[in-house]
Write a structure and sequence with these properties.
By secondary structure, the protein is an alpha+beta fold. It has one domain. The chain is built from 4 helices and 5 strands. The strands form 2 sheets. It has a 3-stranded antiparallel beta sheet with strand order 1-2-3. A two-stranded antiparallel ribbon has the order 4-5. The longest helix is centred in the N-terminal third of the chain and has 11 residues. It is globular, with a radius of gyration of 13 Å.
Length: about 110
């Protein structure tokens, strides 16, 4: 099952997923404290986007020590949440992109209340 039609950009999706994810295992040595802004997520998207003969893909395994395990094809923010949910809890990806778990988008900054 893919999460589709969120109305979010890839950067907004990555920021929400990052802010809802958790550091695990050896990730404690790479962790960066605090939430990720949409602007910072856009920079990460640019860094993690690759083109090949099959098209453009953007993928994240771990990001600053947090488990992400998501990839995007082309400019679509649709993604398969199964690996993200495996490591962050059942339904975690859907809750994150829907803005649940007290996450809100405020301008360019993702915040939690």
């Amino acid at each position: 099952m893919k999460i589709t039609d969120t109305g979010l950009t890839i950067a907004q999706t990555v920021a929400r997923l990052y802010n809802a994810s958790r550091v695990q295992g050896m990730g404690i040595f790479m962790q960066v404290d605090g939430d990720m802004s949409v602007q910072a997520a856009a920079e990460e998207v640019n860094t993690h986007t690759h083109s090949s003969m099959h098209g453009k893909t953007t993928s994240f395994d771990y990001l600053h020590g947090r488990t992400m395990k998501v990839w995007f094809e082309g400019d679509s923010s649709d993604f398969d949440p199964s690996l993200y949910d495996r490591d962050n809890g059942k339904g975690a990806a859907e809750r994150a992109v829907k803005g649940e778990d007290s996450q809100k988008i405020s301008g360019e900054k993702m915040t939690t209340e």
